[in-house]
Design a protein that fits this description.
Rossmann fold, 252 residues, binds NADP nicotinamide-adenine-dinucleotide phosphate, alpha/beta
Length: 252
């Protein structure tokens, strides 16, 4: 047994939404672990500029809700680094509000970004993975797939993440005997642009903290280490699972 199994030397990864937040932390740790990483997102951030000064990183711009993006970002990864070993479907958005007032436009934004896009990107990634004899897909889900969030109400987001978890399980079943592992990661509350508004609201912050047995929010790096495990050979027998990293939120 060797700690080398936690490394990604020689592997090529594509991380959607890798320009900030959890995706950026995943892109960073993958590079530290020896991978070459293509970062995708709509906005090229300063953090992307810094990482791309290293030849082991590259950037491809793309809105994941554009149906032409999945094939294009997968092709860009293959062209740049010659393989696609790891796909992290991380890009996502959140929106909250009463169920009966949640209109079609907001519903479409959530489902297009959080479910249809990861479905399409994984679909684009599977063929090259089959041709090269295997790969790993990690979909970023959420504890919202399991609970009703409080105090904010967000049915569409929660349902989209439940779909991501189930997509991961069924894809894992379909490809288990062809070398492609598929898992999901279900974060609890993580400090990022997505949560900063809620963290700043005293009442939301208190409810989120009180319902997290560890009594604190996670940092993106604490999701990145989980992602590294799930995407490295250290988890070679793990497929079709959802790893919760939530400070104990879903224990009660
Ligand atoms: N933060 C949490 O507490 C938490 C908890 C559970 C699950 N999650 C999940 O973790 C993932 C990352 O969230 P985060 O907390 O890091 O949020 P974030 O800081 O808001 O980052 C969201 C990322 O998704 C990208 N993105 C959004 N819409 C996109 C689109 N149409 N096309 C391409 N990229 C798009 C953003 O890049 P651009 O805007 O530049 O495109 C950004 O990189 C999401 O799937 C989220 O649902 C987060």
């Amino acid at each position: 047994m060797s700690l080398e199994k936690f490394r990604l030397d020689g592997k090529v990864a594509l991380v959607t939404g890798g320009n900030r937040g959890i995706g950026l932390a995943i892109a960073q740790i993958f590079g530290e672990a020896g991978a070459r990483v293509v970062i995708s997102g709509r906005t090229r951030t300063d953090a992307v500029d810094e990482l791309c000064a290293d030849e082991n990183y590259d950037w491809v711009q793309g809105d994941v809700t554009d149906p032409s993006t999945p094939d294009r970002i997968v092709a860009a990864t293959l062209e740049r680094f010659g393989a696609l070993d790891i796909l992290v479907n991380n890009a996502g958005i959140a929106d909250d509000g009463n169920f009966h007032e949640f209109d079609d436009e907001r519903l479409a934004a959530i489902t297009d970004t959080n479910f249809t896009a990861p479905f399409r990107i994984a679909r684009s990634a599977v063929q090259p993975m089959l041709e090269q004899g295997g790969g790993v897909i990690l979909n970023i889900g959420s504890i919202s797939a399991y609970v009703a969030n409080k105090p904010q109400l967000q049915v569409a987001y929660n349902a989209s993440k439940a779909a991501v978890h189930q997509m991961s399980r069924v894809m894992a079943y379909e490809y288990a005997d062809r070398g492609i592992r598929v898992n999901a990661l279900a974060p609890g509350y993580v400090v990022s642009d997505m949560t900063k508004g809620g963290i700043a609201k005293e009442d939301w912050n208190r409810v989120w903290t009180e319902n997290t047995p560890m009594g604190r929010f996670a940092q993106p790096e604490e999701m990145a280490t989980c992602a590294l495990f799930l995407c490295s050979p250290a988890s070679s027998y793990v497929t079709g699972t959802v790893l919760s990293a939530d400070g104990g939120y879903t224990t009660h």
